[in-house]
Amino acid sequence: MYLQTIEVPEGTVLDSLEQISAIHDILGDKDAAVAAFKLALAEVRKINLQEKPILGIKHYYFLGIFSVNRLGDPVQAKELLETAYIVAKRMPDFPWHSVAVDLSDVKYVMKDRDGAAAQLNALLQETNVDDEITIKVLYKLARIHSEMANKSKALEIYERLVEKVRTSEKSVLPEPLVAHRVGKLYLLTGNLSKASHFLKLAQSDETDPELKSQVGVALTAVKAQAGERQEALKGVEELVLITENSITKDTVPIGELKTDLGEILLILGEYNRATEEFQKVTDPTVINLHKP
Amino acid sequence: MQVYNQAFRLAKMCGSEMEGPVEVEIALLNFSLSNQNEAMDRFESGLRKYLIDPQRAKNLNPKILLQFFLMLNECYYNLKAFQRGIDYLLDYMSRLNTVGAGQGMFPNLILSVGEMCFLSAQYEACVEHLEGSAGIVNELSPDMRWLYYNYLGWAYVRQKKFKEALPILLKFVEVAKVR
Asked: The whole model's pTM is what?
């Protein structure tokens, strides 16, 4: 209860402007969302970051994330998140690591892969980084190196990631998913024994039919490339069964699977069957060719 | 405190109209000594006794009464006794209606009910009380209207009723910024 004038606490108007912008966005009124966002932006700049750092971090961070995720403006997001990051890093004991990860995400969205990688590498040099963050950092860094065609670096980081996922109590990323990525990357580099090792690790997940079929394809490709013809053909038959099974065919992307099968059959010299599988990818009478 | 306790016993014994005011004095003392639980009990009991005699109730000064409610509410907030506060204030307003007194206090009391509903995550009830009391916002002092729009707007947001929240939040920003 209040009997006399009480001041509007700092940040209260900003909270509402952010919410108004979000509501406009939810209701599909982009222009109004941007207009409210700009008002919030003007308001956030009034915060004295020396005196109210926590308030500043909260709002610079929120507006940064909102800017990139909802308004599709990574440039604005970068500026806001950088401010949040600088203020957060100055504060002792403040969990600034996640702000750094988000900032690297924005740089990544802006195609500044070097900037994103530098940000993530800097985090890896830090001590006392939470496992959850480390796993995210390694995953993002490996992905960046992989995209930059720096496969050996990507593999090095992916291997660290697999180890971290395996030993961490926090299950941010499922180990089979990561192992599958590493295995596939080794397959691309022609290191078949390593590929096989990691793909077998990925086989432990029985709950995800899509991953299971992808791991199956990759393992069959390893066998085909290793010249284990009979084993590879056996793998192909099992995968064909998956594509024809009434239950699994609704849960796996059949088109991708058939393309992969075609490629394996090509390696095995089964050109006619390979052509058949490729044709099915474009056959309009074959339903559910693509990911459901 | 001893003297007030004695006075209270005497007033109670002889059914004096001073029983309520003396009990509120005891509440005030407890409040200033940070005995929040005791203060809350005493305020509640004492303030109810103010309304026993309808004629006397009509002569009460709402401003003074609101000062007591201000402290009582602080007890509710500090002790997080929000539901108790909501029930008490609603009951008190109903008693005020019965005796036809203290109508000028209603906007503040309803705002408090809305605030406590919000703080105890009863967002639907918060909206119900704030929206249900048509016109109370205009009876609030202009400097306090932002509180009404703030709680009402965010109560809608918490319920994901965004269309309803939007005009209220806009109103809040308008009112808060011109202050």
From this structure: 0.71
